[in-house]
Amino acid sequence: MSEPDSSALYRAAGLVRTAVRSALADHACVIVALSGGVDSLTLLRATLLEGDGLRVIAGIVDHGLQEDSAAVAERVAVLASQLGCQEVHSLPVVVPETSAGPEAAAREARYHALTTLADRVRADRILLGHTLDDQAETVLLGLARGSGTRSLAGMSRQRGLLNRPLLGLRRHVLEQAAHYWELEPWLDPHNQESRFARVRVRQTVLPVLEAELGPGIAEALARTAGLAAQDADALDSLAEREYRIVAAHDGSLAVRPLQQAPAALASRVIRLWLRARGVPANDLSAGHIGAVLRLVHQYRGQGPLSLPGHLRVHRTGDSLWAVSVSNLNSEQPPAEESHDA
């Protein structure tokens, strides 16, 4: 096999540095979320090169999901030090079992650990190594699950402390940059296991789409995410405004304004209300929202709904009420109308 074109490798390294440079402006301290894979290792290298005078911290999250995870975290810490990163933090976490699945639970635990570290060291940004390919995979997974606009919007480039400077670059560009910088990334065996839906999308679905529909599928999916994000942001903003109007100080929710609102707006208001009343975001499904909407539009005196978070939702007159029931089983079934009232 011939060596890659050196000029292409040089251009790839330049693209990565340019993308990272814009994310570092006006910051004094950033955390790079480092797994040791090609994406995050390339991100750390570019950050160290571009962050002259910047305090750069490598945050290595050990999820404990593999037998040798602690040893892997140690090896990744050594890689970070060899690149010149003077502050390296290993962050062991416990990934709980949730109805949202292991990937979502691991992601939540990871972000919690990183934001806790950011608060402790007073970091301005947490840099994540997600690429355009990751974005395309996320959109396809959302489509397959029948998700709404917010899910199809994929990952945001900037949300709170989290920043994804490489979101506009293809994964092969990062691989070329890593080759140029002679990096030796760690290969996560989970990234090769077809039992994970994301791996199947990466290894099978996207290549088939590229072969059958032509090149540029990943870029098209990423554009879809951008358009969906604009729509979702606009609807979320309207929903927050409407929520402040229809949510009463006693915790109830007015029904009549919801009956007159478009379904896309009403469903978002209900989601905001349920989350405020204690329903965990990861456990709140479209089925739950739809069941509450039936109390709004198709109320015939039916009984309360059982929702995650030990919550019962019922309608009285023109108001919805959410009552916490401490003796409910913690593993709730999907929302359904009770017939005991």
Structural topology:
Elements: H1 6-24, E1 29-33, H2 38-50, E2 55-62, H3 69-82, E3 87-92, H4 102-121, E4 125-127, H5 132-144, H6 149-152, E5 158-159, E6 162-163, H7 171-180, H8 197-213, H9 217-246, E7 253-254, H10 255-260, H11 263-276, H12 286-297, E8 305-307, E9 311-316, E10 319-324
Parallel strand pairs: 1-2, 1-4, 2-3, 4-6
Antiparallel strand pairs: 5-6, 7-10, 8-9, 9-10
Question: Could you walk me through the main structural features you see in this protein, from its secondary elements to its overall organization?
Answer:
By secondary structure, this protein is α/β, with parallel strands linked by helices. It is built from twelve helices and ten strands. The strands form two sheets. Strands 3-2-1-4-6-5 form a six-stranded mixed sheet, with helices on both faces. Strands 7-10-9-8 form a four-stranded antiparallel sheet. Strand 2 (55-62), helix 3 (69-82) and strand 3 (87-92) form a beta-alpha-beta unit.
